[in-house]
Design the sequence.
């Protein structure tokens, strides 16, 4: 449902942490943009999101955890490529947020 001009857009604050890997602006902006766009589709409240991008041996792992409207959402994805891990994380997060939204709307 599109928002009208009177509805304020929720403020999504994303902090990206790198562990066992070099921090790059490209990865940071990619993760921030993807997470923000994903949450903005479902959120009506402002929230702070923590994202951890880490490497363990040859696994590239992306993790996130945040509270939204009194609910905690956590997601994680790992692959051989950090960008693919972020994309997988977004897919998991989208599914969780959609399920939560459907649960809310089906009871009203």
Sequence:
């Amino acid at each position: 449902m599109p928002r009208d001009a009177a509805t304020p857009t929720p403020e999504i604050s994303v902090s990206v942490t790198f562990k066992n890997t070099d921090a790059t602006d490209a990865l940071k902006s990619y993760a921030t943009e993807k997470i923000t766009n994903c949450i903005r589709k479902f959120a009506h409240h402002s929230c702070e999101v923590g994202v951890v991008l880490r490497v363990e041996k040859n696994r590239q792992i992306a993790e996130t955890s945040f509270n939204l409207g009194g609910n905690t959402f956590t997601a994680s994805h790992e692959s051989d490529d950090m960008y693919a891990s972020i994309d997988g994380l977004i897919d998991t997060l989208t599914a969780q947020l959609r399920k939560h939204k459907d649960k809310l709307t089906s009871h009203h």
